[in-house]
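Morning!

As promised:
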Amino acid sequence: MTRIRFTAAYDGRPYLGWQSQPGGRTVQDVLERAFSGLFGTTCRIHGSGRTDAGVHALGQVFHADAPDTHRIPADKWPAALNTRLPRTIRITHAEYVPPGFHARFSATGKTYRYCISRAPILNPFDAGLAWHRPLAWSVDILEQAVHLFRGTHDFTAFAALRGNEPRPIPEGYFRRTITQTQVAQTGEHVFITFTGTGFLYKMVRLMTGAAHEAARGKITLEELARLINAPLPDDKSPFCAPPDGLTLMRVHYPEETFGDKKKIN
Amino acid sequence: MTRIRFTAAYDGRPYLGWQSQPGGRTVQDVLERAFSGLFGTTCRIHGSGRTDAGVHALGQVFHADAPDTHRIPADKWPAALNTRLPRTIRITHAEYVPPGFHARFSATGKTYRYCISRAPILNPFDAGLAWHRPLAWSVDILEQAVHLFRGTHDFTAFAALRGNEPRPIPEGYFRRTITQTQVAQTGEHVFITFTGTGFLYKMVRLMTGAAHEAARGKITLEELARLINAPLPDDKSPFCAPPDGLTLMRVHYPEETFGDKKKIN
């Protein structure tokens, strides 16, 4: 067996999220069926993490182990798989990696982008791809709010619980570091970009929702700063933005080991 | 009854085209159900023309007659209807017009845009929105080819037959005038824009297909020019581009009567 690291882009609208489910209508299920068809045997793939139903990706990463009978040049893998995939899922890159590589455990960070549309009437081509916020709000305050998330914080107020957390929840369980934030405006769209070492369940959507509540004047920047820097046990983000606008842009790995262009094997 | 002119945008992917069909899965059917629900009585709408299955619109125009019980300000019509429509169809503009206005017969021209993607791997968000032509071809020759269509020509070679044409086909039946053409490139996308006084069935897709055959060297510009300017009875465009990349951008009406901003009534 040889381990391969794949990069995938997908339109999340037709799928029930990344993670395999009994009904088989998830991105992982569709990818595993393509691999299994190609290999003639059941194949499991391992993603860098889940994306929720309706969330998109331009740079999701996963790994799979290919039988030695399928040792083709790395740059032939995308086409070999894309012919077996619906057009809403594309493999954009593949490279052979050492057996110690793991898409989830080797990752050092992720970049997400959230798209908000300010159009008076949502463009039908943005349906499911942008959060429609046509009423008055301030992009300037949104930007100030988003930058408050930078740094290492206890993100308790910006984490939804999956229900499988250890009890009592250990000290530092919700601590994460946001290394970069950016707000950019292009026509009717406002794009928020978050890069961090790790993200909690629904964290980007809860940060975006809270920042937008500040931008439309429902909470102050001071109140938001307290949620971020000194949360009380019951503090919660005032709003969770919908999945529509969210795209996983990139998963980061240590450059020295897995450069985008460098062939390991 | 009061006549209203509506402008609509739609993502054509989920629909079997504009024109009403028994199954009810067309844009016209969905719109008529929204009007009928609002009026409490069956309502027919009249489009500027058909768009085929999978073809999109940013500026389709149609008219409808509203009962006098529904005389609301023109700028309230889009929201009143959009709440009853799927997000892939949006009413973007409405205005009251004189009873003599007809979306089809009053139109003086249309503008269509065709989108080609040159990306090595088609972006999953472009699936159904662009024609994927990743192999080598010349945007420069495409542009020269597209401009050959300007002017008044017998477009016999660029018309698909619907089967309901008069026989024998009258002299001049396929004569049309293309008033403007444009080719623009943005990143991986090449956009071709055609404005004309009228378009035959599949004409934009047949022009685009032929221009692309020239751009990839399958026919010469001289051969294309002959198809346009001196077609023989059996001449046909060498290729019909798929519906995916096609968008009806605008329907033109005499400015003096129906300006976009001018309220008639």
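Chain A has two domains: 2-106, 109-249.

Hope this helps with the figure draft.
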